[in-house]
What we know:
CATH topology of the largest domain: Rossmann fold
Strand content: 25-35%
Number of helices: 15
CATH superfamily of the largest domain: ANL, N-terminal domain
Strand order of the largest sheet: 2-1-11-10-12-13-14-15-16-21-20-18-17
Amino acid sequence: MTDRGTASPTRLFDMFNGAPDNATMLIGAAGPVTYGRMRAESARLAARLKDHGLKRGDRLALWLPNLPEWVTVALACSRLGVALVPLNVRLGSHEVGFLLSRARCRAVVLAPGYRNGACVEVLRSVDPEDRRALALVVTLGDPGEMILDGVRQTRFADVIAEPAEPLPEVADGRPEDVSLILATSGTTSAPKLVQHTQERNTRHAGDAMVAVGLDEPGSSLLLGIPMCGAFGYTLAITTIRAQRPLVLMESFVPEEAARLLVEHGITHMLGTDDMLDKILSVVPEGKPFPTLRMFGHANFTPALTTILPPKAEAHGVLLRGFFGMTETLALFAAQPADAPLERRSQGGGRPVCPDGALRVRDPETGALLPDGEVGEVEVRTPNAMIGYLDNPKATAEAFTDDGYLKTGDYGHRLPDGGMIFVSRIKDVLRIAGYLVSPTEIEEVILALPGVTVCQTVAASCPAGVRPIAFVVMAPGHTLDEAAALAACRAQLAVYKVPARIFAIDGMPVTDGPNGAKVKKNVLRDMATAWMNPAGEPAGEAAIP
């Protein structure tokens, strides 16, 4: 069903050219959606959004969970030449206001009934100055009242309805148009808005479908991460580009994912490593997913690096690591499917684009490093972002003079042109003049009885900057800190041994498009405060 042998699409709405009208494109909770239905509804939506005043170059905020309507809106915007600004359904008013204001969104599509109307309340609480460009609200369902005074409102069902007279066909979008605007994480500063074009998106989807294996007969993909993030969006357009069935989960539930994998005979699933860990925890060993050809993971939980591979093998799941970032979209690199498990289980891989390349640079000296030496990974691909919105200075700083993108990640290059991801640079600990990966410490502590989660940060102590570990214990277990520190001393270099290991009820996290992420800055603040002699918790042990 792929379009091999024909001209490659350069716009998103061209990606399903040639697919039979009666073939299944998407499967949601309400059932399958065919290519014919998607063609018709996205075309009608584009025409009616144009009637409502949207035009090429405008931006639309898409504020929905993983529903077929998400894809309908994306394809309609592609026809119009309107850029999508995806919003996570869990964002608060400050975050939504920032994105609406910075992107100058002209319209927003939302589901008033989702999460008991949370999105409606958030939108109403956004500072009017931040949403002053907003001229249209499209609702999935009937909210029963006007959401915003002075802003035109219509129902999604009305704008996709069959017309009495044929609507004019809209195909204003061009390959060079910005099709997607994504926000970076912005942990230490305001997020930057990454711009991707239609042509680069569709070309990347074509490269990725081959690397993942979605171009193979009988393929299908289960999507359990939100399309509002770079990872979920990439998986969606890659599957659509391959013209294979895409099964959507509105939100990830391990038991539901396990059921869908079997019910639909899914061949491919990609997500975070902890997603697979949770799925495998609710199914028996053996081979519970006989049709699953691979699970591709991004290394969001480094502590699972040694735990997950044998667990996946025991369940007959082929594990493959991938690498990407908001500026390149997900799946920039993929570990070879035939590589040994030791390599496949790690993040990284070879560039999926034939014209892609990567290299590693010493962040201290600026010198390029030989294979095997750890430094900052730099990548080059013709499918990268065109730049940050309204921020030429940050765009210039993100690229080298010869066109490589600085990733902000540590890794080392392999002889075949691939790489192994080590960690985010900002997460690496600088201890006693050495760079220390927190994963090394966390793996030792996670092997101790009752420890379910471990995170390590660096903090100032009376003896200097030292590692501080935080753990969450399983019910019925308490931390034996002295034994834990002894285990660290027995297995780690002295400068890697934590000054303290604290047991806490739960890690501070923030919801992101790829799942919850630990707030390392909060842990660092806690560690600094608790290691201050004036504010130590009772029972403080001596620093080793």
